[in-house]
Each structure stands twice: as C-alpha cells, then as structure tokens.
Specification:
92 residues; alpha+beta; four-stranded antiparallel sheet; 4 strands; globular
C-alpha cells in the first residue's frame, strides 16, 4: 500500500487515532486512579472514560459520584484533597 498521497496519509492517521481513542474511551476507572479535584474535572474525566453521570455529591469533605457504565450502576468515592478514587462499588 502506497500512502505517499498527503490526503491518504491524513485518512490513515485519523483512522488510527480514532481506533486508539475508542479503546481509551471505555477504560474502567479503578480505586487509586486520579480523576480530578473539582466537580467539573471529575465529571470531565468520567465522561471521557465512557461513564454516564447520574449524580455527583460533595458533602463534608467527601465526593461521591453515582454513574452508569454499559448498563452497570456504580458508586465512586473520591478524595477531594488528592483527586484519587478511594472506592468503586456496585450501586444496585
């Protein structure tokens, strides 16, 4: 396959980038992952990883996110000082 044509090169690169991004887009967020310090950063991180946000609650120095991923309901607890996920559990 000759990809000397600049337009063809861009198409190949765009396809490769889309494949890589789709793999990252559905990555599971796990305990110990850093997802953000502010509600907006946490929301952005969750959405970029394929989660649907049901609720993000900030209360008494703790952050709780109720999310859905591929039909599974999950609850995540995030440390507001470090931005680290401290717990991920089923929220059935």
């Amino acid at each position: 396959m000759n990809i000397g044509n600049p337009t063809l090169k861009m198409g190949v690169l765009a396809s490769a980038a889309a494949i890589c991004m789709s793999t990252v887009a559905l990555a599971d967020i796990r305990q110990g992952d850093k997802i953000g310090l502010s509600v907006s950063d946490i929301a952005k991180s969750l959405e970029l990883n394929g989660y649907e946000i049901r609720e993000i609650e900030v209360k008494n120095d703790r952050i709780k996110a109720e999310v859905t991923l591929e039909g599974d309901r999950l609850e995540m607890k995030i440390d507001p000082k470090s931005g680290l996920v401290t717990r991920v559990e089923d929220d059935d």
